[in-house]
Write a structure and sequence with these properties.
Number of strands: 15
Order of helices and strands: EHEHEHEHEHEEHEHEHEHHEHEHEHEHEH
Helix content: 25-40%
Distance between the termini: 42 Å
Radius of gyration: 24 Å
Structural class: alpha/beta
Strand order of the largest sheet: 2-1-3-4-5
Low-confidence stretches: 250-265, 286-292
CATH superfamily of the largest domain: STAS domain
Mean pLDDT: 83
Length: 417
Amino acid sequence: MKKILLIDDSSLFREYLANKLVENGFEVIEARNGLEGSLKLRNDMPDLIIMEYYLTRKSCVEILKEKVSNKNVVDVPVIMISTRIDREKILSVAQYNVKKFFSKPIKLDALLQTVSGFLQVELEIDNSPCIIEAHFNDEILFIEIALGLNTEKIELLKFKITELAQLYGVPTPKVLIMFSNIEMKPTDAGKLDLLFNTVLEQTGNRTRAVKVLATSDYLAEFIDSKSDFKGIDIKESLDLAMDDLLGLKPDQIAHDEVAAAKILSKSKPINDSQEAIELRFESERHGEESDERVYPEANIAVVDDDMIIQELVKTVLDDTGWNCSVFNNGKEFVDSLSSQSFDLVFLDLMMPEMNGFQVLQYMKQKKINIPTIVFSALTRKETVGKAMSFGVKSYIIKPLKPENLKSKAFEILISDF
């Protein structure tokens, strides 16, 4: 059995990573700091070292120097992990057989692929399509799940919830789980069981503090059939789910604004710590490190009747070299399709003359296949679901966050080129 030495001051991160490595058949030796890591390196002689750059009691460079002077472990490959990666860090450790640098938050699939390559061991990972996002706002934990259910990501969610609870100081949050674009069936029972048990165990909540936004008949049957999950309330409307969580009444002043603010914004951590656990896989994110991006040539259409939005998108994309064409409504855009071609469309749903849904319907009828990012102030599940049914690549809720626009566009363009 191959041995991996894991050196990291964070007990949560060690548990998270060790758990997955043990599942894949490795013996994991954990070290809580640099000094302990140094001792275990000499005594246990691992086949691979995974080490945090910032360690207490003994620095990573000191450990690496000791490793080079020990003929028994000098050739052992090292994977270095850090919250921030810069040229200076890489150069400081490159001479010590550091084969790979990963930045936190770690993408599990990329790390396991690297471990597999170094140790020549075939690893299995669930690659079922699935996107899970989790964030806090005040006392509410929002968990968004789209496309499908993935065992690896649900298991990662266990550690993500613990990490978020520590970062934001909310040990027992209320929870809203939002399912999008998932057709659930009896074969998903095992994954659903794992999901709800994970949420309840990691939040320490009673079932009545967990709300679910979904339109699945099977999901309702599944929850009713499980005594441990009875009390988890399924809502078909985002408004109703938020009303229950916030204790709002439909006639309350600023009702919609309060609910929307809770959904769309994130709390700030109670300290300077950063998130170390990533719920997305490397295969889902292309070129996240913006400083290293090489932008492909592209023609972009921005279809929105709001001049402020038009200028915002153009400004955000200014340094990409992309050619941006602006259209004030859907009709202007579809009329242009006879003479212009586009690689990506930013499309607002609510416009005069011809709205976004009519544009999507037109392109579907004419078999015009252009990757589309929809943005809208509409947050109803039914609206999002209708837009996604046309095959749009992403749905961004207004107010727009500039950092999201460029990342989403880049991901989609890279995957289509």
